[in-house]
Here is the input.
Amino acid sequence: MNKILDVLGIKRFVQTVQNIYRIEELRVRIGYTLLLLLVFRFGSFVVLPGIDPTSLASFSASSREGWMGMLDLFSGGAFSNASVFALGVMPYISASIVIQLLTIMVPAFQRIQREGESGRRKINQYTRMLTLLILAVQSPMYLVTLNSQSGIVFLVKGFWSYTMPAVMCLIAGTMFVMWLGERITDNGLGNGISLLIMIGIVARLPHAILAEFETRFTETTGGPLLLIVEILILLLIFMASIALVQAVRRIPVQYARRVVGNKQYGGARQYIPLKINAAGVMPIIFAQALMFVPLLFTNFDSTRGFANAFQPYGFLYTLVTFLLVIAFTYFYTAITVNPTMMAEEMKKNGGFIPGVKPGKKTAEYIDGIMSKITLPGSICLGFVAILPTFAYRWLGVNQEFASFYGGTSLLILVGVVLDTLQQIESHLLLRHYDGLMKTGRLKGRTPS
Here is the structure.
């Protein structure tokens, strides 16, 4: 019996859970994180004031397809529930992206970033202010979308009686979600904002699986055999995504020996891990944000004009998304990876790449390698972004389940899970317990 448990890995899993429970700090952090995530999920079902909850069925059904389905996916169903958390953390994510780009390209923001802790507080303050501005625009637009749905019953009407309180509730809901994310980051486990996004995505997975299960067993669309094939393909895609997130090109760096008194320092060989996908999920987020532009110019009516031509899972949408992801991968990699700075730091610390002169030649060498590995990385990332289209068009997977075959949701799931497991493993190794993996080290999105 023990041998069977060892083969299945159950015995080691139970031992790992026991080790986690023995560490009080880790146990408290996990419990605190789960509690705040539960609060977030509860808030996703609190309907905005002035709306009859029983009349939301038609809006919920229509919001799970097309553009609205993509927005609803990242809010964990709060968008279709007309919840106080309907806008989720996406306004904060948009503001963070803008501020991050400003800290890279604007000298004034670069100086603020170099101020240390005080600079970080200023950056966070600017991010919150920009989030409020975005919310001031998006909240009324969301209410316009609700008003366009004839099936929704409004118990209260009027600007001061309904619109203004609803806008304030949406703004307060997103700011509260931001607060939850910050509390998880400070006192919980993992990156709070990323965990909230992941929980919102995972919350839709059971419903998507049940919908696909019913489709395969109630309609003549392949039956259980095709459902098994779909699950196997999804597992392979997850494995490939993990490989894409963790893949690195290691550049050897030799440090010169220094003799101080009777002791010798340096002389060791280390490696610079250059990630094949250095841009992470950002190119897909940028590309999908641009693809929302046609919808904005048609007042959220996705059946008119360019919005209809750029419907998700369409040919034009897929082609443009693929090209945008490749372009944004090069752009984001260029502004986040600075070969010149890396070469200067290496030279300052007495390090050099064997066979390459320090300084300018080293920067050119690193830049050349980054250009070579970014091309296959961007193409792979582009294919990940459009995989839901192939699942929907070729395999006949329903739209909800197809969204888990790639795109932002898949990379967020992989990245957040790896980062969280890496933090748990760090706590275990710090207390001299075995890690989560029997051999090797668990690597997250940041190289260890």
